[in-house]
Structures are given as structure tokens and as C-alpha cells.
Amino acid sequence: MESLTQSAPVSNKRLWAGRIMSALAVLFLTFDGVIHVLKPAPVVAGFTDLGWSPTLAVPLGIIELVCLALYLIPRTSMLGAVLLTGYLGGAIATNLRVAAPLFSNTLFPIYVAVFLWGGLYLRDYALRAVFPIRR
């Protein structure tokens, strides 16, 4: 059995599929984190509608961007994915609390997490070794 510290070759198709999935999640999270930091009127209104103080937008945006930076660094990508999963879980809980629309608001963070983890799974041998898909 191959050690988890050694990387097994990844097929070109798997690698590019993983990169594309990760890129889609990263683009969304970058946009989301930046608008939280910039705090335009729609963000302030959204925080108010969700029952959160708009003063929390900037700290939450910074936390999101730091977690995203960890995800983008190959050596810390799994830590970043775990932290972003927690962050997205908070978004799910918040949307459930205010009875936001299920498919557009409440489940969207799950879609983002699937792309984060799916992209990482396709690109990272160690993650596939820990969670193998068996035939």
C-alpha cells in the first residue's frame, strides 16, 4: 500500500475536473468575501434581513478570505476546506433560522462545499486514500 505522504499520479481529466470545480467555488467565495469587506448597500440589507448586525460583515468577510487563502495553499488546502465547511454551515443555519428559500439560499452553501471538497478530492491523492470510493 502506498504511503499517504507519497502522491500517486492523477489523470489529466481528473486533475482538470478538480481544478474547475475548485475554481468555481473559489470564485464565488472570493466574490462573497470581498463584498463582505466592502459592505455595499445590498450586503448591509442582507445582514439586516438575516438578523445580523451589519458591523459583522467585515470580520466575517476577513475570516472567509483567510480560510480561502488556506484552501488555495496546497499544503493547507484540507485545513482550509474544513474551516470553510464550518463557515458555510453557519450560513446554512442562518438561512434555516429565517426560513429563507430552500433551494436558492439555504442549500447554496452545500453546493459550494460540494465543489470545494469535490475539487480537492479529484486533485488530492491523500484525500482519496482516506475516503476511497469502492467499486
Overview of the molecule:
The longest helix has 27 residues, at 12-38. The chain has 7 helices and no strands. It has one domain (12-126). The model is unreliable at 1-6 (pLDDT under 50). By secondary structure, the chain is mainly alpha-helical.
Short descriptors:
mainly alpha; 7 helices; elongated
The geometry reads as elongated
- The count of helical stretches stands at 7
Radius of gyration: 17 Å
Tell me the number of strands. 0
Which oligomeric state applies? single chain
Distance between the termini: 18 Å
Helix percentage range? over 70%
Instruction: Provide the β-strand percentage band.
Output: under 5%
Overall tally of domains: 1
Based on helices, strands and strand pairing, what is the structural class?
A: mainly alpha
Low-confidence stretches: 1-6
Helix-strand pattern, N to C? HHHHHHH
If you average the pLDDT, what whole number results? 92
Major beta-sheet overview: none
